Amino acid sequence: MRNFKKILKCIIFAIICCIIFAICDFIFVPSGYVRVILHTLNYSDEKYDCIILGASHGRSAIDPYRLDETLGTNSINLCIPSETMEDSYYLLKESCRNNSPKTVILDLDYQYWYDLAKNDFSDAFIYYQLEPSKVKAEYFFHNLLKKDVRISFSRWSNYISDFKGIKDKVSIKLDNGYNDFNIESAVVKGADGPYVGNGFFYRAPGGHGARGFIERRTWNDNKVDNKVVKQFKAIVDYCNANGIKLICVTSTITPAPVLTGTSEASAKYFEKLTEEYGVDYYDFNLLRQDVMPRGNLDFGDWDGHMCGALADKYSSIMASVIKDAQGGSVDRTKYFYNSYAALYEDVNTVVYCQTALSIIKKEDDTYNISFEIDGLAGTRVVPEYQIIVGTATGATVLSEYSKQTKYSFDLPQGTYTIRVNARAVGSTAEYEEYCEKAAVLEQ
Q: Which residues cross the membrane (predicted)?
């Protein structure tokens, strides 16, 4: 009898904890779009036979409707920002619960292959949105069992500091749109454009804006996370076992960072990896400019998130490449440069310039401003730079176009805008790229 009472108390305590956790989840956890897209995946009247997996590059670049126009498929884009290879594997299995995919397009983004930031809560954000099923149970037992117990049972603890947002979160969840899984009821970050459907967001045009510096990354095959490779192999094996055609791609990113060489180095690794496992791979950074003309402003940032107009063209081209492959073979020269060297040579402008100001106050109350310009251009291009100093009353050309990259000059107190214009030597354009920096010089 005593043992029964103890067991009963434990059961009641567990039930109370579950109720409290459910209430806290309702109050603190924002409504995300992953919940909406997974509902679309599992409860659409038309079953999906083409599944697109990957992270944020794929979400902004691959329009499933454009694929369907050419391939006659019914596609859904399950590319989700911060989606890891592990997430892709379980999303693939989740897709097969209520659909019968014949094709999987897996977007390979080198940023998710090593030096990944470790955050147990963000690692599990897709797991949270999976329906109770064998797939979710497998995800838990294989990946989350050894992590912080709060991950699986109290996701609200990751949002508990946001007391100001409670009213809005509760209001959204009490709205009919939330129960109907409308995208308007979801908090969507980083899409920067309207939701078109089936997981695709039409990103608004980019701009020079506050893009800042390109992060220079160095690819090293030896630093690739073995866990990521293991999950990639699991995806390959699962597709092979279930008669699913796996196609790997790297979506086109912003032209400027491609010139840093990281895309080239990572693509060589992906080519070797996919060849080893017998998987088709297409590096769409090598798309010829005459096939898909593109510039920095066709992307929302240096990271490579494609804007909607270019995404439509890109998706149609991707579909054509896949259709050619289905027909027997792809004439790669029809679409792609034969090497990155050829791509670099075909860039005939300056595609990037950036700088950081160093400001030192002098004894006479004037200020010395110095900086060095960081630029990127095609291999046949020699960059030149023009320096303009602007004030509230006008602008003055401080230095006409020259190949000089280091500058130093003095200015009196005041508020200035330092603008660097960049172009190729021999160009008649006013500028091809530029950056602006504010300089507030005051005591």
A: 7-29
